[in-house]
Amino acid sequence: MSAENPTLAWLHEPCKPIDHQTEAAARARQDRLTKPQGSLGRLEEMAIRLAGMQGALFPAVDPVRILQFVSDHGVALEGVSRFPREVTLQMLFNIARGGAAVSVMAETIGATMEIFDLGIATDPGPVPNVRSARLGPGTGNIAQEPAMTEQQLAQALTIGREAVERAVQEGARLLICGEMGIGNTTPATALACALLDLDPARLAGPGTGLSPEGVAHKAKVIARALALHGRSESPLELLRRLGGFDIAASTGAFIRAAQLGLPILVDGFIITSAALVAVRINPAVREWMLFAHGSAEPGHRLMLTALDADPYLDLKMRLGEATGGAALVPLLRMACVVHQRMATFDEAGVSKASGA
To answer: Which of 4, 45, 321, 347 does the annotation list as catalytic?
Structure first.
């Protein structure tokens, strides 16, 4: 991209500042609650972070909005997944009907989920509960060509932006992005390799369950993509060349969420690659991110380290689809309720610890 598309100037608009005064007040309240200071560990951290993000001494998680971005990836034709591309379309129907893990989890936690067809290889036509936002029959094969045109990239980013604007208008207080698309750990890994200047062999993982030989083949495909597209381009250009519609839409969603002051709960490996791109484009986005879990994908830890992120859960999950984010929501709720309802030492008439 010789010059950035002027329609994407919004990506660099400032993010809403964190309310550090309210954050400090929330921390002071935690120190007055009837417990040794810090004894609730990261539950305290959750409430304090959310208080600063929401500018409210007593933050709340609900309503929760999940954006589920579904698309195909041309690189799947290189044999980087155990599953055929047809599974993307089949899973779109499964998610929309309520049969997928994320569908069950979203219903369980009471989250609203907006599902997008961004470009499945076979056009399914109108699907109940799915928003059609097709950008093409999947991305290009990154081992042979750029993933997207400039127009497709701009459209994908805008789809994410507009989805967040709808969520905010409808009162959402927490954003989770999910993705589904056969082969999408490959573009996510390629992006991470380019942005972190790391060898594909360090980041490539089993994805849907590849054998060691399959992982080695996947790393070679990623190496071909990196040789073709380079590593020194801008984050936005790397996203265009190496990413996917789902990753790009999530990137746009993250940036707009931070600009509008909507807390972001980052899911697993693929969505973390979008978080990494978003932060490289607009560094202030990082302040609005909470990291749900550490994926079992080996490259996830390297991305988290680059983002200075310490995820709350380690459940050995590697499904994606926003399932890791959804799993954390009950703990976030618990943190907020305890923060609000637990008595202070003065209220309970309990003696504080001595200075010894």
So the answer is: 321
Q: Which tens digits make up the pLDDT trace of 46-71? A: 999 999 999 999 999 999 999 999 99
For residue 222, give Cα distances in angstroms to 152, 199, 268, 274.
22, 9, 20, 17
**Helices vs strands, H then E, count in the chain:** 14, 6
State pLDDT tens for residues 190-219.
Answer: 999 999 999 999 999 998 889 999 999 999
d(CA 334, CA 311): 17
Give the model's pLDDT for residue 350: 87
Digit-coded pLDDT (tens) for 8-41: 999 999 999 999 999 999 999 999 999 999 999 9
Q: Is residue 30 part of a domain?
A: no
Number of domains in the chain: 1
Q: How far apart are CA 296 and CA 337, in angstroms?
A: 30
Average pLDDT over residues 245-266: 98
Residue ranges of alpha helices (H) inside 170-288 are 185-196, 200-203, 212-229, 235-242, 245-260, 269-281
41 occurs within a structural domain: no
Domain extent for 225: 61-331
In this prediction, residue 232 carries a pLDDT of 81
Find the CATH number of the domain harbouring 114.
3.40.50.10210
Buried-state track 198-215, b at ≥16 Cβ within 10 A, e below 16 = bebeebbbbbbebeeebb
**Dihedral sign from CA coordinates of 101, 82, 306, 147:** negative
Say whether 297 is catalytic.
Answer: no
**What contacts 308, CB < 8 A, 6 or more positions away?**
286
Residue at 45 is within a domain: no
